[in-house]
Write a structure and sequence with these properties.
Blueprint: H1 2-10, E1 16-17, E2 19-23, E3 28-30, E4 35-40, E5 50-54, E6 57-58, E7 65-68, E8 77-83, E9 86-87, E10 92-97, E11 101-105, E12 109-111, E13 116-122, E14 129-135, E15 138-145, E16 149-151, E17 160-167, E18 171-173, E19 177-182, E20 189-192, E21 198-199, E22 204-209, E23 221-227, E24 230-236, E25 240-243, E26 252-260, E27 266-268, E28 272-274, E29 276-277, H2 279-326, H3 328-350
Parallel strand pairs: 1-9, 3-10, 12-19, 21-29
Antiparallel strand pairs: 2-4, 4-7, 5-6, 5-8, 8-10, 11-13, 13-16, 14-15, 14-17, 17-18, 17-19, 20-22, 22-25, 23-24, 23-26, 26-27, 26-28
The protein binds 2-acetamido-2-deoxy-beta-D-glucopyranose (6 copies).
The site of one 2-acetamido-2-deoxy-beta-D-glucopyranose has 2 residues, from loops.
């Protein structure tokens, strides 16, 4: 005993919170109905007594069960309990009503991911059928035979005022019951230590950022990282993922997911685009630049040559004509004539 007290004083042990559960589970009931409140929490050795509080004042019950056999308006109120080695439980607000129809709920304040059960209950267990459940005035569910309706995993969209209507001797409508769904953590945001585009070979830290909004003993978040449809890291307690040496294949759309251990709350981040520029791309760029420079030079040289040739061309043409005009026949004729003359001359001379 003194050991426990000492540990408590030193803060080495966190006493758990006691928890109240109801049987049947409804936090709102009709008069004359029964309900049993049960308190769960650790006890001290040799002392199993449980303390109950209604509206902050202790009531006589000292057992782990507080039974209300026939509820009266005086049983309405805020219940808490505490065992020897626990801190007081969260409150349970019990309401005792007088009406024809009652929308019974398993809880008025819940954390997202937890279930919520609704029941459309007639006074004195009168049969009700063709039941409609409403959320904020809009029909949520229709049930021919009056059955309970459970939302297995609530989310923030389940906030609102609920009521029901159903047929008995006539159509009855219940009063509204406000339901509050508390957010456990906001959707994460994926952040990178470097902004895109990233150069090949660099180290990139990705972090999946969110924060718990509610304190829960033992509550932990698990993180998963994805690129497109590929899983990079699945359900790790670390909210970080490292790309050791970025490669061009690491380019793509990244996103992450944060979940509770039981997977009842799963939230994903918006996508983050990462582009990794390869060194190959850079060399290819240089190759292109060089290639176009060489082609450009060749073109320049070509043009200069063309211009020179174009300037030279008219002169060469004249020359060619001259050759063909004065050389060719005439020359040959002349030479023939000359030859004839030279032949003739000796002949003449010989005559
Ligand atoms: C409720 O409590 C008041 C006093 O606080 C008492 O006068 C009344 O009779 C009680 N009603 C019932 C039904 O027990
Ligand atoms: C407890 O407080 C509520 C209002 O918060 C009141 O309606 C109810 O009658 C109280 N119950 C008792 C037993 O005093
Ligand atoms: C048992 O614990 C309760 C508190 O939960 C305390 O009030 C009570 O005095 C304790 N009884 C004994 C015998 O220690
Ligand atoms: C909330 O849960 C309902 C199903 O009960 C689902 O259709 C809806 O998409 C969920 N909303 C969000 C924001 O997750
Ligand atoms: C990335 O994370 C590691 C360890 O988590 C840290 O040592 C390093 O400094 C981080 N680098 C950058 C660029 O944030
Ligand atoms: C979480 O990831 C780290 C490295 O990123 C790894 O060493 C560790 O084993 C992982 N834990 C689980 C539970 O997968």
């Amino acid at each position: 005993m003194w050991l426990l007290t000492a540990l408590l004083l030193w803060g080495k042990l966190d006493p758990a919170k006691a928890v109240i559960t109801l049987q049947p589970p409804w936090v709102n009931i009709f008069q004359e109905e029964h309900v049993t409140l049960r308190c769960e929490g650790p006890h001290l050795p040799g002392n199993t007594s449980t303390q109950w509080f209604l509206n902050g004042t202790a009531i006589q019950t000292l057992t782990p069960r507080h039974r209300i056999a026939a509820a009266s308006v005086n049983d309405s109120g805020e219940y808490r309990c505490q065992t020897g080695f626990s801190v007081p439980s969260d409150p349970v607000q019990l309401e005792v009503h007088r009406d024809w129809l009652l929308l019974q709920v398993s809880s008025r304040v819940i954390t997202e991911g937890e279930p919520l059960t609704l029941r459309c209950h007639g006074w004195n267990n009168k049969l009700v059928y063709n039941v409609l459940f409403y959320q904020n005035g809009k029909v949520l569910k229709f049930s021919i035979q009056n059955s309970e309706f459970t939302i297995l995993k609530t989310n923030l969209s389940h906030n609102g005022i609920y009521h029901c209507s159903g047929m008995g001797k006539q159509r009855f409508e219940s009063a509204g019951v406000p339901i509050t769904v508390k957010e456990l953590f906001p959707a994460p945001v994926l952040k990178a230590s470097l902004s895109s585009p990233i150069l090949e070979g660099q180290l990139v830290n990705l972090s999946c950022e969110t924060k718990l909004l509610l304190e829960r003993p033992g509550l932990r978040l698990y993180f998963s990282f994805y690129m497109g449809s590929k899983t990079l890291l699945s359900r790790n307690t670390s909210s970080e993922y490292q790309i050791q040496t970025a490669e061009r294949e690491d380019s793509g759309l990244y996103w992450c997911e944060a979940t509770t251990e039981d997977g009842n709350v799963i939230k994903r981040s918006p996508e983050l685009e990462l582009q990794v520029l390869g060194l190959q791309i850079q060399t290819r760029v240089w190759f292109h630049v060089l290639f176009y420079m060489v082609v450009g030079m060749l073109f320049l040289v070509d043009t200069i040559f063309c211009m020179i040739i174009y300037k030279e061309l008219p002169r060469k043409k004249k020359w060619n004509l001259e050759i063909s005009l004065d050389s060719g026949h005439e020359k040959r004729v002349n030479s023939y004539l000359q030859k004839e003359r030279t032949y003739q001359q000796p002949l003449k001379g010989g005559q």
